[in-house]
Amino acid sequence: MRILLVEDDRQLRTAVARGLREAGYDVDEAADGVEALETAVARSHDCIILDILLPRRDGIEVCRELRSRNVWVPILMLTALDAVDDRIRGLDAGADDYLPKPFDFGELLARLRALTRRHHEGTEVELRVGDLVIDTRRRTVHRRDRDIQLTVKEFAFLVHLARNAGRVVTRAELTSAVWDDSQAHSNVIDVYASRLRRKIDEGESVALFVTHRGIGYVLAVPSATAGGHEGSGGTTG
Fold this sequence. Notes:
Blueprint: E1 2-6, H1 10-22, E2 26-30, H2 33-42, E3 47-51, H3 59-68, E4 75-79, H4 84-92, E5 97-100, H5 105-120, E6 126-129, E7 132-135, E8 140-143, E9 146-148, H6 152-163, E10 169-170, H7 171-179, H8 188-201, E11 209-212, E12 216-219
Parallel strand pairs: 1-2, 1-3, 3-4, 4-5
Antiparallel strand pairs: 6-7, 7-8, 8-9, 10-12, 11-12
């Protein structure tokens, strides 16, 4: 498996690259955002480890540019910024996960394994729940005649719910499957759930996205939400 490691701190980059190679990975290295984009486009990678604070172009810009070019390799963002808003900004830019600095190298390896495993799981191309259609290959979402624009993390959230349609997915399960970290106590999931529910159900007579307060979320089959009822659990605003 080939990893692109993007880190401007030469000492840290050298140490991490050495550890990755010892763990069996092939590693390409980049020291700034421009070099990262050139390398990511020129070669195929199984995962990109991307620092946010980079010279020339920062990690947020690199992430957005790669996604705009339809490069969907998993991106693990390294950040010294630990505020919830900063993490959401990174995820919205297209990152699949984040790891705050300083980090344990064993945790870095575990996150790489989880990201690459999730990336290769699931062979279905199209998921349907009622009139909601999700194309997992093209990463598009439609409801009736509406195109629904989602961020990378919103899309991952929705796909996990769709694969478990009709079943309440707990916050702990979402934390593991979509975020792969221990942030269930934060409001990150609530923020994404509120955004996703609004994009999926706003203006619709039948609500598909249902919140079970204190438990989790479910993408309900139409018969369970007939008439626009949002379930006994209520919804998150």
